């Protein structure tokens, strides 16, 4: 009989954690609930023993926006300062997303028109950062991860974004890996490298895959999964 064991990260609500009511910087209405990611030892894929805490953060119960714990201090700032913080977090997220998507697209030596369209569609969601996103796209498309530029952007993002936001970012980017309807071992290893660059353990890969599977597929994703 084979015994299958491993570790994985699971999200929990912190029972003793505080709730920041009507405080979400994104939707302005939701309550920010204290959450954490904890690593578990699994036996036959069932979590049986809780291990270390990976990250603590707040998550909006209305729009699912996720924030570092330092959002508590940010909320004490003026409305103008809060908007600046939110805009900077969005900028960091958008740059890291486009860099990662582009790198994923070129990693196999090919750059399909459908992949480029997917990237352009995501860039269009952040018109306020058009210039820097175009620069990021061109640089990564031409030079890949030269000088660890993609990993550096993910590493920088960990200072502004919660673990939940980083995993959502990678899940959003990973749709370009679904060209053949499955993720190859090399692609799995690449996503684990991205997780490490984000300051997260590589066994969060399975949490990332669950996020990816739960995402509504874009037209590109639907075409490739059919």
Automatic annotation (TrEMBL):
Residues 95-195 form the Co-chaperone DjlA N-terminal domain. CDD domains: terB_like. Residues 24-71 form the Zinc-ribbon domain. It comes from the Bacteria. This is TerB family tellurite resistance protein. It comes from Abyssalbus ytuae.
